[in-house]
Amino acid sequence: MPSLLLVDDEPHIIDALKRLFRREKYTLHCAYSAKEGLDILAQQHIDIILSDQRMPSMLGSEFLAKAQAQSPQTLRIILSGYADTKEIINGILNNHIHQFLEKPWRANELREHLRHLINLMDKNQYTQKNQSDNHYTRTAALSFNKNGAIKSINLYFCALLGQKPEHILSAPLTSVINYNQKQLKEILSYVNNHGHWQGKVTLANSTQD
C-alpha cells in the first residue's frame, strides 16, 4: 500500500487532506511541523510527501531539500498559493521539489493526480533513472491557442524565463521561444493534427536551450 506523508502546521488543512484521501488505498502519515515530518521520514518508508510551503519553523521548500537528502527516492510535492516565490522556484531548479500544486486545491484533480503518480510507481515508470533525467521538474511545458497565444505555462518554464506566469499568459509564443514564422507554422500545424509538440527550443533573448 503506497505511503503518503502530509505536512502542514495547520491541523484543519491536515484534516481536510485526510478526508480527501480517506477512501484511497494509502497509508497516511501526518506531521504538523517540518521537524516532525523529518522524524517520520527517518522511521517510515514514504512514497510521496505532500507539504505546505509556508510553515513557521521551516519553509516547505527547505523541508523538502532536507527530505531529499534523507530519502532521495521519495516523490516530493509542494502545496502553496504562491507559485512564484523564489524559494519554490529555486527548489524546483535544484530538484528538491518534484512538483508544485496550487492552493486551494480542487479535490478531484488532487486525488486523480496522486493516483496517476502511484500508477507510475506501480509500473516502475517513476524510477531513480527518471529522477536523474529530471522527468518531472526539467520539462518546460506550455499550451497555446490556434493563434499562437500562450494559454498556460508551467512553473519550470517560468523559472527558466525568470518571469511570473501572469506576465507570460496571452503573450505570443514567439515572445518566449526563438522561432521564425515558418517554424511556428509547422509547430502549430503539428499541434493541430496531434494535440501536442515536443522538442528542443531556444528561449527568446537567451542562448539557453
Automatic annotation (TrEMBL):
GO terms for biological process: phosphorelay signal transduction system. It comes from the Bacteria. Keywords: Phosphoprotein. The lineage of its organism: Bacteria, Pseudomonadati, Pseudomonadota, Gammaproteobacteria, Thiotrichales. It comes from Piscirickettsia salmonis. The keyword Phosphoprotein applies. This is Response regulator.
